[in-house]
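Hi Y.,

Following your request, here is the sequence exactly as I used it, all 121 residues.
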Amino acid sequence: MTIEARIKIAIKCEMGNQKVFERLEAESQIGSGSWKAMLYGKQRATSEMIQFICLNFPNLVFWMMVGTTPKDMPMQKEPAELMAEKHGLKLDEVLRKPASELCATEILILGMHFPVLQPLK
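Below is the corresponding structure, written out as tokens. Let me know if you'd prefer a different format.
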């Protein structure tokens, strides 16, 4: 998975879907057009974008850079784990649940954990 794909997942996890581009521009001082171009695959992430994400989502830094989370660093988590915690869920329980019993939030969590499940553009 590319760093751009990980940034997209991190933004969705931490910022949701409401006015994301406006919020990114206001908080990062990087134009919304640049964010859109990167998130829609028209350009690579800039060092400023990566720095902004890492500074603002510190629990995701290791995952953001490497794509995995080390077991010996419990403060570093993957987005699916953080999203589950935000909703009072445990990732391992969501992963074991039958598909017919999943709610919308749990489906979103699974999409973050298994990015290949994300809808195609």
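The chain has two domains: 3-65, 79-116.

Thanks again,
Q.
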